[in-house]
Amino acid sequence: MKNQTLLIALLACAVLGSGVGVAHTQHNNRQLFIQLQKLQVERDDLEVEWELLRLEQSTLVTDAAVENVARTRLNMLTPDPGTVLYITPP
User: What does the entry give for GO biological process (predicted)?
Assistant: First the structure.
């Protein structure tokens, strides 16, 4: 009789411990899934920003954009063709 009671108590503790372990594991899984979703949103935002930066870079390096910056910020002008000196290799 004592052995049966001890066995039942031991099995009850095992079932209780198993239930707590399952609950803990599911909680951890939910937390990790929430973190994964946040990181995926951040990744998507960074990809959009990267594409916008690439587009901005491609527009800034065009000849017209470079010429516009040279004229407005650096006050550069196109030289008179008669004053240009061409150097040819020997």
Answer: FtsZ-dependent cytokinesis
User: What is the C-alpha separation between 32 and 29, in angstroms, rounded?
Assistant: 5
3-state DSSP assignment of residue 86 = coil
Tokens at 39, concatenated? 């990181």
The pairs formed by 4-9 with CB atoms below 8 angstroms and a separation of 24 or more are none
Stretch (H or E) spanning 29: helix 2-60
Query: What is the Cα–Cα distance from 16 to 14, expressed in whole angstroms?
Result: 5
Question: Taking the C-alpha atoms of 29, 33, 36 and 42 in order, what is their torsion angle to the nearest 10 degrees?
Answer: -150
Kindly report the CA angle at 8 between 26 and 14, in degrees rounded to 5? 20
pTM > 0.90: no
Angle, CA of 37, 41 and 43, to the nearest 5° = 115
